[in-house]
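hey team, just a heads up i'm posting the complex here instead of the shared drive bc the drive is being weird again. everything in one block, sequence lines first with there labels, then the predicted structure for the whole assembly after. its two chains so it's a bit long, scroll down
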Amino acid sequence: MNRQTCLLNPQTEEICWIDLVLSGTPIEAASPSRDRLNKCISCQSFRDAMMRSMGRRSSDRLITDAVDRLLTVLANYNTELTTMAGDLERRMEEQTVLKTVAESLLNVQNLRDCLRVFLTGVTAGEAFGFNRAVVFLVNQPRRALEGQLGFGHVDLKSYSETWSHITRSRLTFSDMIREILSQRDTPDNDLTELVRKIYIPLKAEFGLLPKAVLERKSFRVSELGVEHVTDRQMLRIFGGRPCAVIPIISKEHSLGALVVDNPVTSNEISADGISILETLSYLAAAKIDNLILQNQLEVRIAELQHLHALLQDNQQYLVETERLVEAGKLATTIAHEIKTPLVTIGGYSRRALREYRKGDNIDHDLEVIIEEISRLEGIAAGVLEYSRRRRLNLTEIDLSKMISETLDILEGESVYNSVEIERNLADVRLVVRADQDRLKQVLFNLIDNAMQAMPDGGKVTVSAGASGGYVWFRVDDTGSGMTPETIDNLFVPFYTTKSVGSGLGLPVSKRIVADHGGFLEVSSSLGSGSSFTVNLPSGKKD
Amino acid sequence: MCRVLIVEDERNLLDLYRMELEDEGYKVATAESAAIALQVSDEFNPDLVVLDIKLGEEEGLRVLSDLKNQRRERPVIINTAYTHYKHDFTTWAADAYVVKSGDMTELKSKIRFLLAEKKD
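-- predicted structure starts here --
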């Protein structure tokens, strides 16, 4: 017996389920799927069978009509539900894509990858599936839009190959993003190559792109023409077809524009499509904004590093120059310093020779000559000491302890009996990285200097403390103080107001302190004494 | 016997000048600093002064001017280690300028010349 085939799907040659049931097959055995049953409700065969099975009485007919109407309503609901389910499924897909794009954007480190993720979202079949997408970004200094990246091809011929590759590889959307991001050095496609050459001034009269950016608004056109874009390349790529322009805008900045079209599928660009592209653009804009700032920062940092290097070179040069100038000054000073003993030696030698020839006693002349030669030796030793660049033997030392030890030794010496030495040291460890012996030498020099300023006795106060990243120690005396002229010349080698002393104690001290990265401060008032403070960078790591 | 005052703060040099000039037959007085030079000059009343001037020291130049004010016609010889003072107009008030040397021939001849000139 020939069974009736399904009216709704005649090509499948499926057997009509109603026909099967009516011919006596038990319902369970016929077991139609739920989908199939949903379709049957709207099938005329089903309805005819219903009519037949309900009998011909008028009461039956009323019930049949009611059932028929109910079935019609049901069928409509069914169709609506199916459409809604389809919509929901699409929305969910869109949401998944948006989520994946958002997550991928979180991890990208540079602008190029950011744009690639963005365009993958726009063009991937599983997502919004636009056939082509091109990004332009605003170049603020030039006030223009510059083409950056294109997904898709200039010519339609190239598509079949790409599409068959994508279909074959059966990649999920997140796989596709991963693969695209892993391709570091792939050459630009023909679309990107072309797009990179496009430069559109950011003024509304230059067409839809600047307009979309300036007005922060999307545009859709059914046929892109010269009235929409002034750029010839843009016309060559997108001209004559429906296309949409979506601005890429962050909260604060208008960053660029996205252009999409569907030359392959010829799918219509719907208002929904525009809306979802706007969401996607907004997602990408936040990251693009961030990366542009980061780029600017990197450029600034590079500039600063360059400047820093220049400054270092200059500083090195200055230090060298300063050393040469200092060396020149020192040479002049030394020449003058040795002149007096040389004149004296010369004078006494001539006198000695004369007296010797006359048979006179020349003991005194020779004593003076020896004394002046010793003086010359002293000057030579001082110059060597001053000029020597000794390597510092840096260790971590406690300044308070070092000062206490030095003062303990000095107080035992009779030379210091005429003065009172007072200690005013902080009750904490004052840690500094320094050459202990050299610092002791500085302290000794300063105390010796203070002693010289108080020939009739007085008080030397040694204090120490820490402030502003420096540890310091200070030597105060109650001597006669210094004139401004003396203070100006304090650190000039061989400048001395003392009857004894090399004139090199303070210059050497200053140099030692500078070698430690510190500085020496002097203050003085005539009649009430002077104060020398050594400041050294704190060795404590915060 | 001509009287010469030597102002020099280097003790050994001062002694040398004194001995050498005494050997030349002068009566010599010494001052160990410019500060006391004027006082010694006032007491000793020299016919000529040999004055040491140090670089950057104003006192020496002031003493030069004071000495000249004391007795304008009395010659003052500046005796210094620095050659460039020669071109400093503040020292032009001096009658001669001698750069210090172990060979005292120039100083001695300048003294002799100026004292002879004065007598004429």
